[in-house]
Amino acid sequence: MTGRAVWIVLPAYNEAAALPLLLDSIAKLPPDAAWKVIVVDDGSSDGTASAARSFDRGLPLDVLVHSHNLGLAAAMRTGLEAACQRAASSDAIVTMDADHTHRPEQIPAMLAALDAGADVVIASRYVQGASQAGVPPHRALLSAGIGWLLRARFGLPGVRDYSCGFRAYRTRLLQEALAAHGTRLIESQGFVVMTELLVKLAPLRPRIVEIPLDLRYDRKVGPSKMPTGRTIAGYLRLIVGRSVRL
C-alpha cells in the first residue's frame, strides 16, 4: 500500500455538519498511503462546500460544486470522472457517504483486499461480521428486500450488497469502464447508481469481494436524503431494464 495514492470521493448534499467529522476521521488514517479527497457538493444550501474548504488538517482536498442539486448519480459521476482523470492507473478510488455513517477506519482493510487480488471491494451489510447501529427497521427491511431482488436479477459473482456506496476500486478498472462507456457509464438517477456501476463493470470481469460493513447510522445528522418512493421505482426500472442501457 505504501506509495499508492487513494482518492476518496464524497458526494455531499447538505452535509455541512457531518462532513468535517468525516474529514477529521480520514485525516487520522495511517500515513501508509497518499490520501486525497474529492468532495462533490451537489447544490447544497447549508454551506457544505465552505465547510469542506475550511477543513485545515493537511489533507489534500478538492471541492467540486454543482450549481444546483442534480442527485446522487450526477454527483457520483462528477467525482469518479475527476478521480479517474487525476489518478494513476495503479491508484485506488474509494467512494463513501458524506454523512459520517461509514467509518474510514475500514478503508485499510478494503485496500488490503485490493492488494490480495480484488478489483472491487464492497463494505457489505450481508456478510458475516457486518453490523448496523441506529438503522430504522423500515429502512433495513427495504434494503433487504431490494437486495434480494437485485441478487435474483443480476447474480454477480461475489456480490450480496448491490447498493452500499462504501467501496474501493482499482483505478485501472474504472478508467477502462469510462473508456468503454463514456458518458453512458452512469445514466441512472439517484441511489440506483451504485447498482448500475456494478452491472456496467461486469463485462470487464472484475473480481469483487465483500468485507463486513460497520454502519453507524446512529451518527447521522439530520434526516435521510433518500426519496423512498423514487428510489424503489428506480430499482424496479433497473431490474426490468427500462432505465439504463446495460
Q: What portion of residues is helical?
A: 25-40%
What distance lies between the first and last C-alpha atoms, to the nearest angstrom? 33 Å
CATH class: Alpha Beta
Query: How does the major sheet shape up?
Result: 7 strands, mixed
Average of the residue pLDDT scores: 91
Task: Output the radius of gyration.
Answer: 17 Å
Q: Find the count of extended strands (DSSP E, 2+ residues).
A: 9
CATH topology description: Spore Coat Polysaccharide Biosynthesis Protein SpsA, Chain A
Choose one word for the global shape.
Answer: globular
Give an account of the 3D structure.
With 246 residues, this protein is an alpha/beta fold. The chain has a single domain (5-239), classed as Spore Coat Polysaccharide Biosynthesis Protein SpsA, Chain A. Helices cover 36% and strands 19% of the residues. The strands form 2 sheets. It has a 7-stranded mixed β-sheet, sandwiched between helices. β1 (5-12), α1 and β2 (34-42) form a beta-alpha-beta unit. It is globular and about 45 Å long. The model has no long low-confidence stretch (mean pLDDT 91).
Q: What's the topology here?
A:
Blueprint: E1 5-12, H1 19-27, E2 34-42, H2 48-53, E3 61-66, H3 72-86, E4 92-95, H4 107-115, E5 120-124, E6 131-133, H5 137-154, E7 167-170, H6 171-181, H7 193-201, E8 208-212, E9 214-216, H8 228-239
Parallel strand pairs: 1-2, 1-4, 2-3, 5-8, 6-9
Antiparallel strand pairs: 4-7, 5-7
Helix pairs in contact: 3-6
